[in-house]
Amino acid sequence: MSASDSGSTSHKLWEVFTQPPGGGPHEHAGSVHAADAEMALQNARDVYARRNEAVSLWVVPSDQITASTPEDMGPFFEPGNDKAYRHPQFYKVPQGVRVF
Amino acid sequence: MTPAPASTDDPKRVAEFEARIARGETIEPKDWMPEKYRRQLIRMMSQHAHSEVVGMLPEGNWITRAPSLRRKMSLMAKVQDEAGHGLYIYCGTETLGVDRHDLVLQLLSGTAKYSSIFNYPTLTWADIGAVGWLVDGAAIVNQTMLAKASYGPYARAMVRICKEENFHKRQGYEIMATLAAGTPEQHAMAQDALNRWWWPSLMMFGPHDADSPNSGELSRWGIKRKSNDELRQRFVNLTVGQAKAINLTIPDPGMTFDEDTKNWIFSEIDWDEFWRVVKGDGPCNRERLAARRKAHDDGAWVRAAAEAYAEKQARASSAA
Lengths: 100, 320
Known about the structure:
- The complex is a heterodimer of chains A (100) and B (320).
- Chain A contains 2 helices and 3 strands; from the N terminus they run E-E-H-E-H.
- Chain A is an alpha+beta fold.
- Chain B has a single domain, classed as Ferritin, core subunit, four-helix bundle (Ferritin, Up-down Bundle).
- In chain B, strands 1-2 form a two-stranded antiparallel ribbon.
- Chain B is globular.
- The interface between A and B is medium-sized, with 24 and 34 residues.
């Protein structure tokens, strides 16, 4: 491409999390490129919050996120699978009681 | 940048992958996927992102000449949305292991394609109405289908985009309805825009199913849930009534209604024109790329300044 392009690669990648109005948790919305955190916040606002979608934004450098892998799926989440006693349905209630 | 050929894929893993698609599971970036699936997605998603970006040009052409402040604000917001849509889809494409910078360079060097519709000129203000109504209308039909695509990041970008496109379509239709209800000259202007944009809009859905080289694979892997011809028919059926309601005539005198299928049967598309524009010989192909290259080059100093500022700030904070 042109000379002005040599040396200019993409800015760093940031993951964007938006909190909707109404008290929900922050949720992943997508990503933006930006040279620094402040610019990442401004870009995230312009890209993911043009219509009051957010009352709060988080931006996190993408390379700072540690994630589980698809191969983990079975064994990693296994400890949660066989513990039926963590669910209310595990417990018996005398017939006719409607409190629960 | 192009990943390894598909022949390296283990048939057993391909079978497992296809079983996941068949069960309606969503494929996520770190999941195993056939190389061909990855490559088809990169091709399709980057073309889609480029289309959003190039799509800003025919409409940007009229921002300074919008007939009222209300229309000007709407058009600026719409063009800004298109930039946002391009970014959503580039962001989704990057999850497949490509860099946005490389995709942009493919667009600028002319090796990547984008939707041919944007190689037609916007000659009058009515064209802005026609683009919103027909081009965004066709895009909604296509993107509503893609919102159910098997690749999670693509599907999620489409959900976000579809919500915003409805404003685009309505603002375009409002422009057309206003002109069509105006003076005879204004009505003629709206009709002329419909005449010029109708056939290119039908071409947006791509070749007939039988002539579409990628369709088989895309549908087998759940990327496209409906065929080009099905989507095109749906768009025509939706649009006929909308044209009638504002007293405009679709430029296809041979069009008939099929009572059995409830479909509007339309005449054959000029496929020579379609392929000519796809291959780079449309009315504005060269102009569009030249405008993109100029915008990219003119922005180089801004990107360099942002990098320099970030480095300076980082130095200052590590010294402190």
